[in-house]
């Protein structure tokens, strides 16, 4: 019986160390919550338990006596595709655990460095997130994957990164890029689309074909959904309907979100397969990212799905170390974008993303690598 039906979260703990297993049991006991826990010290034991039980969440140590690394992860994911999966990491295999999150685990926790309340929160969020994904699979015709980009604050270059990633993916896939607001230059400015904003937002959201017929198609094949007029605010229900229609109509949907907490943004983020937060390598931007992440974790329950992209719009004399950014935000840095403000201006004036305008540049090459990483994540997770 599931947590949703019984009110009790069922956990399969796959951990060979008695001390680490005891730590998990103690953390859960301190929470005062009710859990139903099974313990399997080996992969074979976990496989046997999964023959007769369907846990809400699997808490997994990747390094077991009879299995190690990706073999462990893939085998448990194959045997329990509907369960949330949280990886337990030792100090020496954090990279492996981070990669597991990129490939479909909901989160990872470092042994000995995770307070009890963080463990409990991570398990709750993992179960809620997995439950939401299962509902989406049952109620929507999801053809593709959704990648959401959101800036830590305005002006950090999130649109530049999002448009370049979408353009790079469109070389091999059917891709739609969308925005929920048309403030500033937005997508119209990035692609030099001379059109009145919001035409598609007059379509019948319950009719996916009517909506997708209103998209702008660029010579590259990339399709674009411009945001509505500035005086029109998108509701959560509208955002959900639009995103569901787009995901049913393309291999990849990239959404460029305004850096603010809103019901519409939350609706999109809850449907995202990957979230990319764009920030600069300086204290004010990291502080803004931290505040936005608090909202994402509390309102959207997106622990484990968010990665950072650090943008260097200008060369800084004393940039924050990447390790410090990861420590403060508790999310991995997926890419570091080198500075080249002049090239960004030239690309925008041409109406072509940097990856088309100068793909051989250091900036273009870095953005192409970012797109390849995101695509690799989805390919392996599928």
Question: What features would you highlight for this structure?
Answer:
single chain, alpha/beta, Rossmann fold, 2 domains, 8-stranded mixed beta sheet, 19% strand
What does this entry look like structurally?
- This protein is an alpha/beta fold.
- The protein folds into 2 domains: 3-138, Response regulator (Rossmann fold, 3-Layer(aba) Sandwich), CATH 3.40.50; 140-381, Rossmann fold (3-Layer(aba) Sandwich).
- The chain contains 16 helices and 15 strands.
- The strands form 3 sheets. An 8-stranded mixed β-sheet has the order 10-11-9-12-8-13-14-15, with helices on both faces.
- Helix 12 (283-300) links the parallel strand 13 (274-280) and strand 14.
- Helix 10 (236-249) runs parallel beside helix 11.
- The chain is globular and about 65 Å long.
- It starts with a helix and ends with a helix.
The end-to-end span amounts to: 26 Å
- Identify the CATH class of the largest domain: Alpha Beta
Strand content: 15-25%
Q: Which topology of the largest domain does CATH recognise?
A: Rossmann fold
Radius of gyration in whole Å, from Cα? 21 Å
DSSP helix fraction? 40-55%
Structural classification = alpha/beta
Largest sheet: 8 strands, mixed
Number of separate domains: 2
CATH architecture of the largest domain: 3-Layer(aba) Sandwich
Number of helices: 16
Number of strands: 15
Physical arrangement of strands within the biggest beta sheet: 10-11-9-12-8-13-14-15
Outline, from the CA principal axes? globular
| Poorly predicted parts | 1-5
Q: Assign the CATH superfamily of the largest domain.
A: P-loop containing nucleotide triphosphate hydrolases
Give the mean pLDDT: 84
């Amino acid at each position: 019986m599931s947590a949703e039906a019984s009110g009790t979260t069922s956990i399969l703990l796959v951990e060979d160390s008695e001390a680490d297993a005891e730590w998990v049991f103690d953390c859960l006991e301190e929470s005062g919550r009710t859990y139903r826990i099974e313990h399997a010290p080996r992969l074979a034991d976990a496989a046997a338990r999964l023959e007769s039980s369907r846990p809400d969440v699997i808490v997994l140590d990747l390094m077991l006596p009879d299995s190690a690394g990706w073999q462990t992860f893939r085998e448990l994911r194959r045997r329990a595709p509907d369960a949330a999966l949280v990886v337990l990491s030792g100090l020496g295999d954090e990279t492996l655990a981070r990669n597991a999150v990129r490939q479909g685990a909901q989160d990872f926790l470092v042994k000995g460095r995770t307070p009890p309340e963080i463990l409990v929160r991570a398990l709750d969020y993992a179960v809620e997130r997995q439950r939401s994904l299962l509902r989406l699979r049952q109620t929507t015709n999801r053809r593709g994957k959704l990648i959401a980009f959101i800036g830590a604050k305005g002006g950090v270059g999130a649109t530049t990164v999002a448009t370049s990633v979408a353009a790079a993916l469109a070389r091999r896939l059917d891709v739609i890029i969308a925005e929920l607001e048309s403030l500033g230059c937005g997508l119209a400015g990035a692609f030099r689309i001379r059109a009145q904003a919001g035409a598609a937002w007059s379509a019948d959201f319950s009719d996916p074909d009517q909506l997708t017929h209103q998209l702008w198609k660029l010579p590259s094949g990339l399709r674009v959904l411009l945001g509505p007029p500035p005086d029109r605010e998108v509701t959560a229900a509208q955002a959900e309907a639009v995103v569901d229609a787009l995901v049913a109509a393309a291999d990849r949907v990239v959404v460029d979100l305004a850096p603010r907490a809103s019901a519409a943004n939350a609706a999109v983020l809850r449907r995202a397969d990957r979230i990319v937060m764009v920030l600069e390598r300086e204290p004010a931007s990291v502080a803004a990212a931290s505040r936005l992440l608090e909202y994402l974790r509390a309102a959207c329950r997106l622990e484990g799905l968010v990665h950072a992209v650090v943008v260097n719009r200008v060369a800084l004399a004393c940039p924050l170390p990447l390790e410090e950014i990861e420590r403060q935000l508790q999310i991995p840095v997926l890419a570091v974008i080198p500075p080249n403000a002049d090239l960004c201006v030239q690309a925008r004036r041409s109406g072509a993303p940097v990856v088309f305008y100068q793909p051989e540049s250091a900036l273009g090459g870095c953005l192409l690598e970012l797109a390849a990483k995101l695509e690799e994540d989805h390919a392996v997770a599928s």
